Each structure stands twice: as structure tokens, then as C-alpha cells.
Automatic annotation (TrEMBL):
Swiss-Prot/TrEMBL keywords: Hydrolase, Lipid metabolism, Membrane, Secreted, Signal, Transmembrane, Transmembrane helix
Phylogenetic lineage: Eukaryota, Viridiplantae, Streptophyta, Embryophyta, Tracheophyta
Record-level GO cellular component terms: extracellular region
InterPro entries assigned: AB_hydrolase_fold, Lip-like_C
Superkingdom of this protein's organism: Eukaryota
Pfam entry (one): Lip_C
Gene Ontology biological process terms, A to Z: lipid metabolic process
Claim: Secreted is one of the keywords in the record: yes
Organism: Dorcoceras hygrometricum
Protein name (Swiss-Prot/TrEMBL): Lipase-like C-terminal domain-containing protein
GO molecular function: hydrolase activity
Length: 459
């Protein structure tokens, strides 16, 4: 009887979680479509004679701005960059706070490795090269999208970049910096970790998350997916989306698996069967983002990643839990997004299976209870496992200035995982306070040479 009740509750939870996620996805998609239709109607009605560029194109026409290091905003899982979902902004318009900002569109579900490769070629230009060895091992094409001249072809040690990553986007930047240090890009022997001037993390996925296990990853290995789970439904949906390969839909939103060639035009019906049954595709090879977000997967990544002495590191760790009579509980109901509320509660009570080997030697469940509905707060402050990197808790910025490179300065922020993206109104004043501080720090406090501001360039 007890097993029957547990099974029933699990099915109810899966149904509710699936319904909430699909509803939110439909809301985002319909909002983007509605915005585009409204803009098209407005343009047709008023027929403006002057076209004003926004975002990345403005910087080319602003005097002196081209001499400032760019700020690159890197989205997280299920995210999107400039040009996807119409005029919707993943960073809720934060990119408009500075005239030298790029917002790349990377694979929303592709692995951390693949996204780091894509980010490099987005900036430097040329065709994405995933590497011969990696591509062969993972069963996909070696080459991907061609970015032509790139968005910042002059990128090098003399022209470094500030990176701001949300969620998994922060780990993507760390992997990219390590690739630069390892000279992992063919034809770029001058690559150096000093091409990265600063990394700022917003709810960054540095050490994995227990949510991956709640969504369906197996805690035994952190690689395989449970047969009945939210991620299993996601897997099937993504395969079908890529297999049907509707051009206008893929232009609007893309999961990023084009290099796996899962289109019906390429693999036919039997290819679809192979993908669905786990014999081929990204979910068969493990070359997708969820294995990278398990605690085991993050430890595997972190074992090869360094914190470099000439780069500035900052992070904002979010939390939507509190202690009540010694028990970790959600810190309110209204402030937590409906998409995340169930997971905040579940993550605050997470227990690693007693019959499964812990992901690391000193693991304790209670260390992982504070969370923001998607990531555990312990994961977001700075890289901790398998080796803890130098860090400093920041309460007041002025107490830490001048900032020193090679140290992770982190703050704990009251908020859920999507507080500072998509919907600016949810964050309210905090949105401007956080992003203004990030952009000001990039322009005034994180640099290797004295910064030359636009009004000083021609004096």
C-alpha cells in the first residue's frame, strides 16, 4: 500500500511539473510571437522612414566605444541570444545598459563543451570546429555554424573581454577560458587565458545541482536518465522537434543540436526510432547539458578548470530558502516563480540515496538544502569541488576594493533562479542595482591597464 501511494504521488508530481513547464514555455513563446506581431503591425501602420539600430550594431557608430572591452552576456539552459524568439530578451533588456554588449545565441541544451566552442567562433569568426576527437566520440559532425567574420575578430590578450554568464552560461565561460589556456583551438597558438578580463556569474552552475536528480538524472552515475521522469519527456520532445525540422520554427527557437543531423531529411523514420530508443543522438552519447549539471558531471569538469591569476571573478548566488526551527523551507510563496516553487521545496528536503555512493568524500545533504529552485546556493558562490578555489564573501563592495584578480568575490542574493532574466518587472529595483553594479565594475574596477573612457579618447 505504501509503495502504491509513493508511486501515485510521483506520477502526480510528474504530471504537475510537466504541465507547469509546458505552460511556461508556451507563455514565453506566445509572448515573443505577440511582441513580434505587435511590432510588425506598428511598423506597417506608421511606416517609419528612419531605421535605428539597437544592441550590437549601435557600438559600431558610437565614437570611442569600439576601444572599450566588450561585455558578452551568455545565457543558461533553455536560453536564447539576440535574434531568437523575436524581440524577446533573455537578459530582460540589460544589454541596453551599455553600448558595447554582445548576446550570443548558443545551443540551449547542448553540452558545456559544445557551447564553449560555439562561443569562441561567435566572437573570433569562422566555422565552429567541435574538434575531431570529440565529434567522433559523441557521434556528430565536426563542423557547425559559420559565423563569418565574427562579432569581435580582434579578440586577443591586448583586446580582452568581460563575460557575464547566467546559470550554465557561467560554466561555459570557464570552460572556454580553460580551452584558451590549453590552446585548444586549431590555428590560434597565441590563445591565452588572459583573453578573458573578467567573469561575472549570475546564479552560476559551478558545482552541479541536486535538481538534476529530481528531474530524472540517475544519482548513481550522473549520466543516465530515469525511464519515467521530466527529463525523459523533455528528451522525446526535443528529438521530435529536431526531427520534424520546421524551418521557421527552428529559426525562432533552436535547441542547438543541428550538428547531430537529426532532421527527418537526413535520418528518416528509422533514424528517429534509433534516437528515441537511445541508440543514437546527443542523449545516447551524453553530449548534452544535463550530465554536465549533475554534481558528478561538474566535478569531472572542474577537475580540469583553473582560476587564473590575471582574471577578475565575481558571482551572485541566489537563494529562496530560510531556516525555520532548524528546518530548511522556502522563504515565502509569492516571491517564488510558479515554475520553481515545487523544486525549491523538494531541493530543500533532498536526501542522497543511502544505497548510492556520495558524489564526493565529504558530502552532506544539509550543505545542499539552500537553493533558488534550480541550483543549490553552495554551487553558485564559487568553484568548490573537487578543489575549492580562492574566494571572498562580499557584504559591501567598498570593503573589497580595489578588487584583486584570481579571487572569486561572491554575494548571496535573495531571489529565485530566473529573477534577473526575461521579466525585468519581477526583480524590480534589484534588477537595475545588480546590472548597474556589474557594468560599472567592468568599466571602472576590472582592468589590467588604466581604462580609457570614450570622453578621454580624443583629448
Amino acid at each position: 500500500m505504501i509503495r502504491w501511494w509513493i508511486s501515485t504521488l510521483q506520477w502526480i508530481e510528474l504530471f504537475v511539473s510537466s504541465l507547469v513547464h509546458m505552460a511556461y514555455g508556451f507563455y514565453i513563446f506566445s509572448t515573443a510571437v505577440g511582441g513580434d506581431l505587435s511590432q510588425a503591425l506598428s511598423d506597417w501602420t506608421f511606416k517609419p522612414n528612419v531605421v535605428v539600430g539597437l544592441g550590437e550594431e549601435v557600438s559600431k557608430e558610437t565614437t570611442g566605444v569600439d576601444d572599450l572591452p566588450p561585455i558578452v552576456l551568455v545565457h543558461g539552459i533553455f536560453g536564447f541570444g539576440k535574434g531568437r524568439l523575436g524581440g524577446l530578451s533573455y537578459f530582460a533588456g540589460a544589454e541596453l545598459k551599455d553600448d558595447r554588449v554582445f548576446v550570443p545565441d548558443l545551443g540551449s541544451l547542448t553540452s558545456i563543451y559544445d557551447r564553449a566552442r560555439e562561443l569562441f567562433y561567435y566572437l573570433k569568426g569562422g566555422q565552429v570546429d567541435y574538434g575531431e576527437e570529440h565529434s567522433r566520440a559523441c557521434g556528430h559532425s565536426r563542423f557547425g555554424r559559420n559565423y563569418g567574420e565574427g562579432h569581435y575578430p580582434e579578440w586577443d590578450e591586448e583586446h580582452p573581454i568581460h563575460f557575464v554568464g547566467h546559470s550554465a552560461g557561467a560554466q561555459v565561460v570557464r570552460v572556454l577560458q580553460q580551452m584558451l589556456a590549453d590552446k585548444a583551438f586549431e590555428g590560434y597558438n597565441n590563445a591565452s587565458p588572459n583573453w578573458v578580463l573578467s567573469i561575472t556569474s549570475l546564479s552560476g552552475a559551478f558545482n552541479g545541482t541536486t535538481r538534476t536528480y529530481l528531474d530524472g538524472m540517475q544519482p548513481e552515475d550522473g549520466k543516465s536518465v530515469k525511464p519515467i521522469s521530466l527529463l525523459q519527456l523533455c528528451r522525446v520532445g526535443v528529438i521530435l522537434y529536431d526531427w520534424f525540422d520546421v524551418p521557421w520554427l527552428k529559426r525562432y527557437y533552436n535547441f542547438g543540436f543541428d550538428h547531430f543531423n537529426m532532421s527527418r531529411r537526413n535520418i528518416g523514420i528509422w533514424g528517429l526510432v534509433n534516437c528515441l530508443t537511445g541508440r543514437s543522438g546527443p542523449f545516447a552519447s551524453g553530449d548534452w547539458i544535463l550530465p554536465d549539471l549533475t554534481i558528478q558531471g561538474s566535478i569531472r569538469l572542474n577537475s580540469h578548470l583553473h582560476t587564473f591569476p590575471d582574471t577578475y571573478y565575481f558571482s551572485y548566488a541566489t537563494k529562496r530558502t530560510r531556516q525555520l526551527m532548524g528546518v530548511t523551507v522556502p522563504s515565502g510563496i509569492i516571491g517564488v516563480h510558479p515554475l520553481l516553487f515545487i523544486r525549491v521545496l523538494q531541493m530543500s528536503q533532498w536526501r542522497h540515496p543511502s544505497d548510492v555512493t556520495p558524489p564526493y568524500k565529504s558530502y552532506r545533504d544539509e550543505d545542499w538544502w539552500d537553493n533558488d529552485g534550480a541550483l543549490n546556493t553552495i554551487s553558485m558562490t564559487h568553484p568548490r569541488f573537487p578543489v575549492e578555489h580562492p574566494s571572498c564573501l562580499v557584504v559591501n563592495d567598498s570593503e573589497c576594493q580595489p578588487f584583486q584578480p584570481g579571487i572569486w568575490y561572491y554575494k548571496i542574493v535573495e531571489g529565485d533562479h530566473i529573477l534577473f532574466i526575461v521579466n525585468k518587472e519581477r526583480a524590480g529595483l534589484q534588477f537595475d542595482l545588480i546590472y548597474d553594479a556589474i557594468f560599472e565594475r567592468c568599466r571602472k574596477h576590472a582592468f589590467r591597464k588604466a581604462p580609457m573612457l570614450p570622453n578621454e579618447l580624443h583629448t
